[in-house]
Amino acid sequence: MPIVQTALQRLYVAIATLSWGVLAAAFLAHMALSWLLLRLAGETDLTSEWLTFGYFYMTTATTVGYGDLSPSLPGGRLAAILVILPGAIALFTAFLGKAVSDIGGFWRRRLQGQGNFSRRLGHTLIVGWRENHTRQLIEGLQSDGAGHERIVLLAPGLDSNPLPDTVDFVGAQSLSDFDSFSRAGAAGATTVVVRGASDDETLAATLAARAAAPKAHVVAFFQDEGAARLIRNQLPDVEVITSIATQLMVRSARDPGASRLAELMFCHDTQDTAFSLKVPDLAGELTYFGLLCGLKQRHDLTLIGLCREDDGEIDLNCPPDRRVRTGDTVFYIADHRIGAGMIDWAACQGVPA
């Protein structure tokens, strides 16, 4: 019968692979047989209570042998020689071997990208592996406030985790594989950074990232402005980065020192670096000029721009009377990052424009 054949096949596989269910069943069966043999041999001191028998059985299986309990009759000793000792020790050894094998296999699977981080929250997900580019990206994120978190790397074509001391790794068939994004915990990620081997791969990965992480801040790097424009039009909430090398060369030619200025503002390991923060709930009215003066006087920060929450437009030369509202993003230059809770917002209010 098909049902019987299926059941026998599953039993064969379970026994052949020594599953935990088979091992547990063998333990229970051997314990029951050992108890029965000792009971028939008249070893009432060992079989009268299950706790006493369990203690005797486990000290025998683990070869501890405290000596306070042992068979005292010829039949009990014969049962111990033929059944209890060899069976209990063999089963306990099999248990230890399987436990060590499973634990080692678990960590090997994680190292090989087969781990599951779908329940992780508040982490950064990096999509794509570009050797030194990705290494520098991870180093920068670690040094810029993410050192306490475990970054997750999602990448195809890698046999094992390239940075096991720094990141967790999820292998994928492609960067558009939705299941891989799920295993990488994309749904709970705060930030997703995408950079594929080509713009086509980055494009597909960005679409998959936005679908898998609808609430995350997604950043994608493109070489071609056309692909970047496509994402900007289709997914305006994705922050798209393209190479500005040519524009920077033009600006440096006309304004000497512009390249150094850009390096200082956006390099994570220098002083005078650009940062951002969101404006919290404000009790009163706040102007751009008041915020500029308050940040400089109270915190030695230099305000350089504002991003409006309603339309996402960034203004680097705001009028003094421009209203700063809750939810706007403030860009400033400082020696280190400062959280919104550290700002004395009340001191910035009421300053006339």
Polypeptide structure, described:
The protein has 353 residues and is of the alpha/beta class. It has a six-stranded parallel β-sheet with strand order 3-2-1-4-5-6, with helices on both faces. Strand 1, helix 6 (132-146) and strand 2 (151-156) form a beta-alpha-beta unit. The protein has 13 helices and ten strands. The protein has three domains: 2-110, Orthogonal Bundle (Helix Hairpins), CATH 1.10.287; 124-243, Rossmann fold; 271-348, Alpha-Beta Plaits. Residues 11-15 have low confidence and may be disordered.
Number of strands: 10
Q: How far apart, in Å, are the first and last alpha carbons?
A: 89 Å
Q: What characteristic shape results from the CA principal axes? A: elongated
Tell me what portion of residues adopts beta-strand conformation.
5-15%
